[in-house]
């Protein structure tokens, strides 16, 4: 029951990652990161842009900064309320308009 609730609420969020150039996080596909984190969207930006997080809308809190032991390896992660609409099929907040299917679900339904 608790797990169901946690997953339900995590899909209502987008994760914003600010990673330095060369970081593996910059090279992973954003949709795979979203699957991994069980959130609707992951946006990956250059580390320097983490100061702009508050301007990007629907922000839940300040981004959390992580700095590695040597001081070079640093990144920031912010959580925001999902910007897009809930897909009635997969429940991810990745639909462009209310009550419409997201693009991946649209393709699945079209192929049935
Ligand atoms: Zn969908």
Defining key terms:
4 helices, binds zinc ion, 2 domains, 22% strand, elongated, alpha+beta, four-stranded mixed beta sheet, disordered N terminus, single chain, 112 residues
Describe this structure in words.
This protein has two domains: 2-81, no CATH class; 84-112. The chain has four helices and four strands, in the order αβααβββα. The chain has helices spanning 2-10, 24-27, 30-37, 103-110; strands at residues 13-19, 41-46, 64-67, 74-81. The chain has a four-stranded mixed beta sheet. A hairpin with a 6-residue loop joins strand 3 (64-67) and strand 4 (74-81). The longest helix is centred in the N-terminal third of the chain and has 9 residues, at 2-10. It is elongated, with a radius of gyration of 16 Å. The N and C termini lie far apart (32 Å). Zinc ion binds next to helix 4.
């Amino acid at each position: 029951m608790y797990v169901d609730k946690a997953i339900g609420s995590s899909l209502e969020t987008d994760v914003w990652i600010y990673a330095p150039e060369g970081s593996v996080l910059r090279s992973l596909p954003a949709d795979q990161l979203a699957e991994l984190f069980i959130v609707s969207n992951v946006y990956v930006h250059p580390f320097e842009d983490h100061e702009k997080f508050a301007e990007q809308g629907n922000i839940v809190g300040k981004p959390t900064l992580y700095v590695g032991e040597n001081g070079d390896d640093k990144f920031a992660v912010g959580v925001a309320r999902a910007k897009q609409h809930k897909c009635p099929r997969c429940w991810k907040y990745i639909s462009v308009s209310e009550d419409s299917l997201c693009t991946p679900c649209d393709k699945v339904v079209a192929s049935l």
